[in-house]
Specification:
Elements (H helix, E strand, L loop, with lengths): L39 H4 L21 H11 L6 E5 L13 H11 L3 E9 L14 E6 L2 E10 L5 H19 L6 E6 L5 H11 L3 E5 L5 H6 L4 H17 L2 E4 L2 H9 L7 E3 L26 E6 L9 H13 L4 E6 L5 H10 L5 E4 L4 H10 L2 E4 L14 H9 L3 E3 L4 H7 L4 E3 L5 H13 L1 H18 L2 H16 L1
Parallel strand pairs: 1-2, 1-5, 2-4, 5-6, 6-7, 7-8, 9-10, 9-12, 10-11, 12-13, 13-14
Antiparallel strand pairs: 3-4
Length: about 475
């Protein structure tokens, strides 16, 4: 990989803009991660050791996952759990997509449980399997868990009809596996929302409880984005209601998502919040930096690494790039890494407008993304100006920036703005305001001392609050309680 660039000489930092005003935090009980040990922040996180036995029958409130874990530790266990983890878009860190299901499956397996992940063939994902498909399926070990991969391609660039067909095909293939009576618990991780269908089959035909994980609230977000037919939204409404009501436990990735689950009839005692966390191994000051050859050593590199879809609103970033170029700002380069339906149009626009301060790269494996974060000076967390995004998202891009120890610029009010304001560890600007986005980038490019201060605060927050390994332990305790 190309070496990292030298940073500009320190200069006096300008005043930090105030974060955008966010929405108030919803009143919802957060099932937070266990508190880190006293020396956690100073010496870095360490893996906790846990008994891997099956949870004992609980004598505590159904939502008390910590009580279930204590009961298990005190009373011993008959045998480990057999867990089926349904996540159509699963990937290992060798892929370029999110790896939450991989990390949590590994954490469950480390506690002694036998975990099988059932997934499809998602664009940019790497499942760890390389053999041929036989009758549309292949399977094998991937780390401590097993993977069953169905030959069902899916990706953000596909149209609505093609993606919907892929969702239904996956549900049809996964249902016999889930309902075969081989598992003690099914974890149904949405989206797509249709992962609930195999979980329903397991519950009805084999009496297997299921945990419903809400990564994105459907149909709330598709309705807010528009473009989905009314009958499809109505079917999604019924499916989401049933999933929230029938699940032995619901895990939401944000407090706003948890409130949608409760509004759909989930028992509040069974609703927990386990947000996306930081991978402190792949991101951080210990990672060797990588910068693309287009980035000059003196340039401040602002990195956006993620999907290039309509929901990401990256046109505003090109608007900001045009403003900076028109001003003669030569200290900054914007790097966009990833794939998506909007990428060809974004690249064509950048070329048409002669945006010399913008570089595109294809999607990269997670380790390479960590190296790009180490080589960048600013991390961008951007979404389209949809009000529902304020409390109903838990983006990995924000967590990756914190873990890397880089100042984060977000254009989202609500949850993201609150996280960035803590420390502070970045700058929040309103959505749909490319001039303010350009101003935030220019201020950070001109202020290495400011970048240093915000970046140190970002890493401190990542270690203290968002370590994925601690969040994985919380997820495991909730799963064990759901199966008890």
């Amino acid at each position: 990989m190309p070496g990292g660039a030298t940073r500009p000489a320190p200069a006096e930092a300008p005043a930090l803009p105030s974060p955008a005003t966010g929405l108030p935090a919803p009143a919802i009980r957060v099932a937070a991660a266990p508190a880190p040990p006293a020396d956690h922040a100073a010496h870095g996180p360490s893996h906790a050791q846990h008994d891997g036995g099956r949870p004992a029958r609980r004598e505590h409130p159904p939502g008390d996952a910590d009580g279930a874990a204590r009961a298990r530790d005190q009373q011993g266990a008959a045998r480990p759990l057999r867990i089926l983890y349904l996540h159509q878009h699963h990937s290992t860190p060798a892929g370029s997509t999110a790896t939450r299901s991989h990390a949590f499956a590994e954490a469950l397996a480390a506690r002694g449980h036998a975990v099988t992940i059932a997934c499809g063939r998602y664009e940019g994902a790497e499942t760890g399997l390389s053999g041929p498909f036989r009758r549309g399926r292949r399977e094998g070990p991937a780390g401590r868990h097993r993977v069953v991969e169905f030959d069902i391609p899916c990706g953000n660039a596909m149209g609505l009809a093609a993606r919907s067909a892929a969702f239904l095909r996956y549900a049809a293939r996964a249902a016999p596996l889930a309902a075969g009576g081989r598992f003690d618990l099914v974890v149904a991780s949405s989206t797509p929302l249709t992962v609930a269908l195999p979980a329903f089959a397991a519950r009805a035909l084999a009496g297997t409880p299921f945990l419903f994980e809400i990564r994105d609230p459907w149909p709330e977000l598709p309705r807010a984005m528009g473009g989905v037919p009314g009958p499809v939204l109505a079917a999604m409404e019924r499916l989401a209601d049933a999933a929230c009501r029938r699940a032995a436990a619901v895990i939401a990735l944000s407090e706003g998502m948890a409130e949608t689950a409760i509004a759909r009839g989930a028992d509040p005692a069974r609703v927990h919040v386990v947000p996306n966390g930081c991978d402190l191994h792949l991101f951080g000051p210990h990672v060797a930096p990588w910068r693309p050859p287009e980035a000059a050593p003196w340039e401040c590199l602002a990195l956006y690494a993620g999907a290039h879809g309509r929901a990401n609103g990256l046109g505003a970033l090109l608007d900001a790039a045009a403003i900076l170029q028109a001003r003669g700002e030569r200290r900054l380069r914007i790097l966009l890494v990833g794939e998506g339906a909007e990428k060809p149009a974004l690249m064509a626009r950048a070329a048409r407008e002669g945006l010399a301060n913008v570089t595109f790269l294809p999607a990269q494996p997670r380790a390479a993304v960590g190296a790009l974060h180490a080589g960048a000076q600013i991390v961008l967390h951007l979404l389209a100006g949809v009000p529902a995004f304020a409390e109903w998202t838990s983006p990995n891009k924000l967590m990756d920036g914190l873990a890397a120890g880089r100042p984060v610029v977000t254009n989202q009010p609500g949850r993201a703005a609150r996280i960035v304001a803590e420390g502070p560890c970045g700058i929040a600007v309103p959505p749909g305001e490319p001039a303010l986005l350009a101003e935030a980038l220019a201020r950070l490019a001109a202020g290495p001392a400011l970048r240093e201060r915000l970046g140190l605060a970002a890493r401190r927050q990542a270690v203290a609050k968002w370590d994925r390994r601690l969040l994985a332990e919380r997820f495991c305790a909730i799963a064990e309680a759901a199966a008890a």
